[in-house]
Design goal:
Elements (H helix, E strand, L loop, with lengths): L11 H29 L8 E2 L2 H5 L6 E8 L2 E7 L6 E6 L2 E7 L4 E3 L8 E8 L7 E8 L1 H6 L7 E5 L24 H15 L7 H16 L16 H10 L6 H14 L4 E7 L1 E2 L2 E2 L4 E8 L4 E5 L5 E5 L8 H10 L6 E6 L12 E6 L5 H6 L5 E5 L18 H12 L4 E4 L5 H32 L1
Parallel strand pairs: 1-19
Antiparallel strand pairs: 2-3, 3-6, 4-5, 4-7, 7-8, 8-9, 10-13, 10-18, 11-12, 13-14, 15-16, 16-17, 18-19
């Protein structure tokens, strides 16, 4: 019997490399399948990353006091701020007191005066940002010793300024540049803003919001309120606006908020989308609602507004603009005394006093129904980052309709989940970690597969 070896036998080491490639390929396919299954079986309430009030409402555009540091002769406030002041002018009880160079304000101690004093730290050059208001008291060691309490020199500080270390974003984090729209679309939006809305550079933030509200309420009217076309899930907001204006399309609150967001951002207003609902799986238990928040630099605050009901903003008894979670807290306690909303009076609010098609300031309890119905204690509030495209829920074939819609949802799914606030625990953060584990495991398997192929080629 001829037992001579076959010609060109595959070396044992090469067979091992090939087997290794096959195993890596199987692992990669399994992990890819796991990623896809996790995407299509996700629940709505797991499609966000739960965060805090501080992260949502205190951007790096206003100074945050990270820590206080004792320096020779006083204390210094370390700040997190996307501005770098040349220095600070310090007022004490309304009078000029001292000044210092550098990015952080310095408050000198006054050993012969241990009473409370009000300080205002004004960043320089003046106008670069809001002053910091602090009430401060220096207590020397001798004071404590006289009380029989051995303590070092101490400072007591009272302030409403933002204070602490937490995750922060600039306002620009939330703003879409709409680079995926065509140049002729952007030009038409700019024309509408100038010729029809009447936006002028001299307009303040709140005035621009009023003009935009008038435009959408008068131009779109009641005929545009209704079921959106299923393709509006993936269409860009300008196409949705054109269809609504022509009478071919309708929209829920989400579509109305989307188009308001588009025109507001293009008009120079830093505006973001807020979505609230309580769901189970991919099905809404109740309808949910969408609205907007606009950064108002005049106050350094995010302001709630609801284009679907012509609410421009709301203020408290001090005239401060209220954000969404402020309003949710007021709703929980029915604490509406002194809360006022700026409203465009039209067909949606015929019983509100005032002339038709004018802006009126209304006590919030008179028009609070939408908040009472939607800002429920079990609500999950989501802040969606750009691009300004809808969240995908169940019809995954829509991913193949539009590249921006596809990439926007994929990026949101893995890297930019909507940030959220909820009163009750959710699975959002845990699910997000699982997504990353599956994703990077798949990437590692691809690397292993490629490396094993390279080794098998070298050995053959």
């Amino acid at each position: 019997m001829d037992v001579s070896p076959s010609p060109n036998p595959v070396p044992v080491s090469s067979r091992g490399a090939i087997q290794s490639s096959v195993l890596w390929g199987i692992l990669g396919a399994a992990l890819l399948t796991a990623n896809v299954v996790h995407i299509v079986t996700r629940s709505w309430e797991a499609s966000f990353f739960q965060t805090s009030y501080a992260t949502i409402y205190y951007p790096t555009d206003v100074p945050t006091i990270l820590e206080w540091h004792e320096r020779e002769g006083g204390i210094e406030a370390e700040l997190n701020w996307n501005q770098t002041p040349d220095g600070w002018v310090i007022l004490k009880d309304g009078e000029p007191h001292t000044s210092n160079d550098g990015p952080y304000p310095f408050f000198p101690e006054i050993e012969d005066d241990i009473t409370w004093a009000d300080y205002i730290a004004i960043p320089q050059p003046e106008g670069i940002g809001k002053p910091l208001e602090i009430t401060l008291r220096f207590i020397p060691t001798e004071y404590w010793e006289n009380l029989g309490l051995p303590r070092p020199d101490s400072y007591l500080i009272l302030t409403d300024e933002v204070h602490g270390r937490f995750k922060q974003y600039p306002v620009s984090e939330w703003i879409d540049d709409y680079s995926y729209l065509e140049d002729d679309q952007l030009a038409e939006i700019d024309r509408i803003l100038a010729d029809e809305v009447g936006i002028e550079e001299s307009d303040g933030t709140l005035r621009k919001l009023e003009k935009l509200t008038v435009h959408f309420r008068d131009t779109l009217g009641t005929r545009c309120r209704g079921n959106p076309h299923h393709d509006d899930r993936w269409r860009d907001p300008f196409v949705i606006y054109q269809n609504m204006r022509s009478g071919e399309g309708q929209g829920y609150c989400t579509q109305h908020a989307q188009i308001f967001l588009l025109f507001a951002n293009r008009a120079g207003l830093s505006t973001r989308l807020v979505v609230c609902a309580r769901t189970k799986g991919n099905n809404f238990i109740y309808s949910g609602h969408s609205w907007i928040e606009t950064w108002v630099p005049e106050q350094g605050r995010w302001a709630w507004g609801d284009p679907s009901f012509a609410f421009v903003y709301a203020t408290n008894t001090k005239g401060e603009l209220l954000n969404s979670i402020d309003i949710a807290a007021l709703r929980k306690q029915s604490a509406w005394a002194g809360v006022t909303t700026r409203l465009y009076k039209d067909w949606a609010t015929p019983d509100v006093p005032g002339e038709e098609s004018t802006f009126v300031d209304v006590p919030f309890p008179d028009v609070v129904k939408v908040v009472q119905d939607q800002f429920v204690t079990s609500g999950i509030y989501k802040w969606r980052r750009p691009p300004n495209v809808e969240d995908l829920r169940s019809n995954y074939l829509l991913l193949f309709k539009n590249w921006e819609f596809f990439w926007g949802n994929l990026e949101r799914y893995y890297f930019k989940p909507p940030l959220a606030i909820a009163n009750y625990p959710t699975d959002g953060n845990r699910t997000y970690y699982i997504r990353h584990l599956l994703l990077w495991s798949f990437v590692a398997s691809l690397f292993g597969f490629g490396l094993s192929l390279l080794k098998s080629r070298k050995k053959t």
